[in-house]
Automatic annotation (TrEMBL), chain A:
The chain crosses the membrane at residues 12-32, 116-137, 144-165, 185-209. Pathway: Lipid metabolism; fatty acid biosynthesis. It is found in: Endoplasmic reticulum membrane; Membrane. Belongs to the very long-chain fatty acids dehydratase HACD family. The gene is PAS2A_1. It comes from Stylosanthes scabra. This is Very-long-chain (3R)-3-hydroxyacyl-CoA dehydratase.
From TrEMBL, chain B:
This is Ubiquitin-like domain-containing protein. It comes from the Eukaryota. It comes from Stylosanthes scabra. Residues 37-56 are annotated as: Disordered. Signal peptide: none annotated. Pfam families: Steroid_dh. Belongs to the steroid 5-alpha reductase family. It is a multi-pass membrane protein.
């Protein structure tokens, strides 16, 4: 019985990882093709469908951690997925004025390359029981460049969106109301920018430590 | 008596060890360590080595005991593991500053025209519920400060200095967040009846909470050496952490009367934090009072929030 569930788990996770891998491959493909054929202004439109699908699917990973299907701590994945969903739905999808900016291109390239490597890594592990050492190296090395480029794109796009957020009053709750509550999406965006200040070095040094652990372990094996 | 003092990684803290008389106490050892390392006893965490592979929690040395009690037969040498807990503050200092924030900041929102800086010009009408809320809130935090200096007997004398920043951030931020909404010029009061029920229930719970604290105080000796007893009497007969229970209900009363999302968020977070503490305390008491070797067995009780937890 236990062996059956273990097999089912492997099957499900293989399917999940390779499906989302395919989604991100499509994102990268459409970004590069559109860049070549028309220009960075149209990149979002071309990549929108696979982007919304692949990035939103990541919510399942929180579930996987909660029910114990995977070992990753929820506390590590939550901030990562949170910022991704915020940029995807809270900025790009909600404020179309941002979509034509060149930072969208750098954002999607950084994200898609990172995710293609990450999902294929897990896809290999679940399906075949191991991942090739070059893939492990890529997983723990590309972030050195892609974290700075990705984070800069995220911060840049939130900043670009600010005037549109303020003008639109979207997602704002005003007083008076019977629950005596208010929410200002503009100030929340400022707070989000603030979080990047301690958050980015924290994430980067965490990955550096992970890199040291993972690559030295594989050397010894 | 020769004490070898090592760090958790095995490195010798004091080269050549420390020489003490055979009848020396742990407190004597702490004084010697302070002379050699300049770290005060409050910062010293001294434990007996745990056999490798054992999942047991290490035995922490009690400053009142003599070192002989921790040796097993071979009473001339002892190896002790040292951990520096970092700069410490007394619990009284920590509690005083974390409670001072809400006590002072809330009335600022009530008495001063702060809302002008948020863009609300013009006269502000103060409703009765806002006045009662301010008195209720300030009474609560004044009570807490009073209890800190006159009621509580702490299990430890000190807490790490970093907790001052963390705890003050928590209390002061939430205090300001709630004060902003309850004293807001566009605040919408609830019905008179709901307000009275809320504050009435809250006051009853605050008084119950004070009584719970007095019961807990009487479980410990004034010399302040911590220690745990089975709490009995009043609500403790049915719930282990009746003090947390009454505190949570007290905040519920405040929120029923003032009805702000900010207040309810604070209630949820506080209840979550207190529940974690309650689980740990309940588990510790059950482990300590296991019914063996003449010890009483911890009775079956709710942990913090009957009928759920």
């Amino acid at each position: 019985m236990a062996a059956f569930f273990s097999l089912l788990r492997r099957l499900y996770l293989s399917l999940y990882n390779w499906t989302v891998f395919f989604g991100w491959s499509q994102v990268l493909y459409h970004v590069l093709i559109t860049l070549k054929e028309s220009g960075h202004e149209n990149v979002y439109k071309a990549a929108e469908k696979p982007l919304l699908f692949a990035q939103t699917a990541a919510v399942l990973e929180i579930l996987h951690g909660l029910v114990g299907l995977v070992r990753s701590p929820v506390s590590a994945t939550l901030p990562q997925i949170g910022s991704r969903l915020y940029l995807t739905w809270g900025i790009l999808w909600s404020f179309p004025e941002t979509r034509s900016h060149v930072l969208v291109t750098s954002l999607l390239i950084s994200w898609s390359i990172t995710e293609i490597i990450r999902y294929s890594f897990f896809g290999f592990k679940e399906a075949f029981g191991f991942a090739p050492s070059w893939l492990l190296w890529l997983r723990y090395s590309t972030f050195l460049l892609l974290y700075p480029t990705g984070i800069s794109s995220e911060v840049g796009l939130i900043y670009i969106a600010l005037p549109f957020i303020k003008a639109s009053e979207k997602y704002c709750i005003r007083m008076p109301n019977k629950w005596n509550f208010s929410f200002d999406y503009f100030y929340a965006a400022i707070v989000a920018l603030g979080i990047y200040v301690p958050g980015s070095p924290h994430m980067y040094t965490y990955m550096l430590a992970q890199r040291k652990k993972a690559l030295s372990k594989s050397k010894r094996e | 008596m020769k004490v070898t003092l090592v760090s958790r990684s095995g490195k010798e803290i004091v080269k050549g060890g420390i020489e003490l008389t055979d009848s020396a106490t742990v407190a004597d050892l702490q004084r010697e360590i302070q002379k050699r390392t300049k770290k005060s006893p409050d910062r010293q965490r001294l434990t007996l080595p745990v056999p490798s592979g054992s999942r047991e929690r290490p035995v922490v040395l009690n400053s009142k005991k003599s070192l002989k009690e921790y040796t097993d037969g071979n009473s001339r040498t002892l190896t002790i593991i040292f951990k520096d807990l970092g700069p410490q503050v007394s619990y009284r200092t920590l509690f005083f500053f974390e409670y001072l924030g809400p006590l002072v900041l809330y009335p600022v929102f009530y008495y001063f025209p702060v809302y002008q800086f948020f863009g609300y010009k013009g006269e502000r009408v103060i409703r009765p519920v806002q006045t009662y809320a301010m008195y209720y809130w300030c009474f609560h935090y004044a009570k807490r400060i009073f209890e800190t200096f006159f009621i509580h007997r702490f299990s430890h004398a000190t807490s790490p200095l970093s907790n001052v920043f963390r705890n003050c951030a928590y209390y002061w931020t939430f205090g300001s967040y709630i004060a902003y909404y309850v004293n807001h010029p566009l605040y919408t009061p609830v019905s008179d009846l709901q307000m009275k029920i809320g504050f009435g229930f809250g006051i009853v719970m605050q008084i119950s909470n004070l009584y719970c604290h007095i019961i807990l105080r009487n479980l410990r000796k004034p010399e302040g050496d911590g220690g745990y007893q089975i709490p009995r009497g009043f609500l403790f007969n049915i719930v282990t952490c009746a003090n947390y229970t009454t505190e949570i209900y007290q905040w519920l009363g405040f929120n029923i009367a003032t009805q702000t999302v900010a207040g309810y968020i604070f209630l949820l977070v506080a209840a979550f934090i207190m529940s974690n503490w309650a689980f740990a305390k309940h588990r510790r008491l059950k482990k300590l009072f296991d019914g063996k070797d003449g010890r009483p067995k911890y009775p079956r009780r709710w942990i913090i929030l009957p009928p759920f937890l």
